[in-house]
């Protein structure tokens, strides 16, 4: 009976540790990359959970870290395999405008949002007299065309945004639509963005 109670207690701590970490995305990322001090984090979690069983917390943290790392590797392998079968197209001289009223534009992409409209337009077709809430000119649009499996492959958007964020690239717009992933950046970031993506995309 003692061992059954002990096993249940340890399992309860393990579940509590998992629940605690699932609400801390920055810790999950650090654990996935194996760049966290497990002993120090165990002490912090022990204090948060108000438990005296440090060894159970530490063991649960190590097991969960190993699972995360393996899951991350498998997920990234699938994402990279998909992106290697993708292609990139680059379009310069694009503008992004956000308006409170719908406007007539030529050869543009439009996204309807509550109370506003987002347009991605060729600069040559940019209306001169128009009231905008936000206006970004001289942008570059990069389209990644992927196989149909994109819809059923989790982690593609997270992978791409994380890679670009690590290179300090600010995305003005990001749209994922069926087999197309559309990224809009400022002209000054276009070359860096292209180089980063071409190192990944086939």
CATH topology of the largest domain: the name is VC0802-like
Strand content: 25-35%
In the CATH hierarchy, the architecture of the largest domain is 2-Layer Sandwich
Instruction: Give the count of helical stretches.
Output: 6
Main pleated-sheet profile = 6 strands, antiparallel
Per CATH, the class of the largest domain reads Alpha Beta
| Overall body shape | elongated
CATH superfamily of the largest domain: VC0802-like
- Tally of DSSP β-strands: 6
Distance between the termini: 59 Å
**Rg from alpha-carbon coordinates:** 23 Å
In helices, the fraction of residues equals 40-55%
Structural class by SSE content: alpha+beta
Overall tally of structural domains: 2
Strand order of the largest sheet: 2-3-1-4-6-5
Task: Give your account of this protein's structure.
By secondary structure, the chain is an alpha+beta fold. The termini are far apart. The chain has a six-stranded antiparallel beta sheet with strand order 2-3-1-4-6-5, covered by helices on one side. 47% of the residues lie in helices and 26% in strands. The longest helix has 30 residues. It has two domains: 70 residues; 112 residues, VC0802-like, CATH 3.30.2130.10. The N terminus is likely disordered.
What's a concise summary of this model?
With 202 residues, the chain is an alpha+beta fold. 47% of the residues lie in helices and 26% in strands.
């Amino acid at each position: 009976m003692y061992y059954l109670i002990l096993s249940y207690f340890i399992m309860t701590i393990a579940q509590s540790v998992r629940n605690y970490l699932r609400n801390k995305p920055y810790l999950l990322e650090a654990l996935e990359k194996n760049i966290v001090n497990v002993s120090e984090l165990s002490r912090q979690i022990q204090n948060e959970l108000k438990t005296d069983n440090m060894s159970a917390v530490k063991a649960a943290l190590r097991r969960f870290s190993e699972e995360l790392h393996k899951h991350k590797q498998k997920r990234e392998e699938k994402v990279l395999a998909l992106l290697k079968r993708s292609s990139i197209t680059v379009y310069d001289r694009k503008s992004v405008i956000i308006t409170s009223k719908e406007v007539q534009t030529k050869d543009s992409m439009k996204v309807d949002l509550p109370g506003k409209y987002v347009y991605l337009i060729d600069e040559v077709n940019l209306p001169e007299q128009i009231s905008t809430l936000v206006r970004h000119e001289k942008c570059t649009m990069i389209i990644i065309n992927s196989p149909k499996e994109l819809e059923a492959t989790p982690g593609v958007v997270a992978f791409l945004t994380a890679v670009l964020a690590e290179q300090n690239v600010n995305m003005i717009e990001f749209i994922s639509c069926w087999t197309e992933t559309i990224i809009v950046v400022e002209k000054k970031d276009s070359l860096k963005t292209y180089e980063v993506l071409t190192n990944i995309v086939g």
